[in-house]
């Protein structure tokens, strides 16, 4: 979109994206903000024919944008995400660039419950991991790492070899969601697997644990991981939808069923708010039965 004196929103969104990059947000997260705010920018441009400054946008404009999204039959969870991006932009403008008002204050969107995806049982998970070995050592190691650490795909695929401390049995994620870092112990199975994998790949010329098959000095792409995971799932004759993020949910679910405290699961997943893992609590409902039966 062309930037003109009477329409400066694209200038401020670009500053916001640079701010996110400095804060070590993942490329995927920044790309999501870019897509969401591109729609908001286009709407405001059309609404005022390109004659409104960012500081002049008010609460009614934001509400009209939300009405526009509803009229376009977007689902409530999509509308909530679009609004969240706009709210984050204005929070940045107020805190970092001294804007006087935040037009998103006081606006709420419908809370939407997002159900957990259909989870693989432990046997299905083992089948996928063993089948991955037939595809390649890289995908076998990567999928095991995601499962045994509960990590997100970006954190896993961009790991450097130096992030694996086999001697002290630890793994270091320098950047997880929100720009934070995370240390986790290595599961015995993962320790043995990575020891073998790193020995075989020690002279491959890449600093990345999981390099791209095309560019040795770049990490494997998320698309490559998803495409090959789909092949593995098909080979296993599993009809459930399986993605790297579903495997992360499997980690949390399996730990819950094994009786692990939710605060520890939150730490493994890199959540700072324990409420993020509260959705797994229903899996342990039987643990609550003795207490509930005390009622008369």
From TrEMBL:
The keyword DNA-binding applies. It holds the Pfam family Phage_int_SAM_1. Residues 7-94 form the Core-binding (CB) domain. Residues 115-293 form the Tyr recombinase domain. Keywords: DNA integration, DNA recombination, DNA-binding. The keyword Transit peptide does not apply. GO terms for molecular function: DNA binding. One of its GO terms (biological process) is DNA integration. It comes from the Bacteria. Belongs to the 'phage' integrase family. This is Integrase/recombinase XerD. It comes from Ureibacillus xyleni.
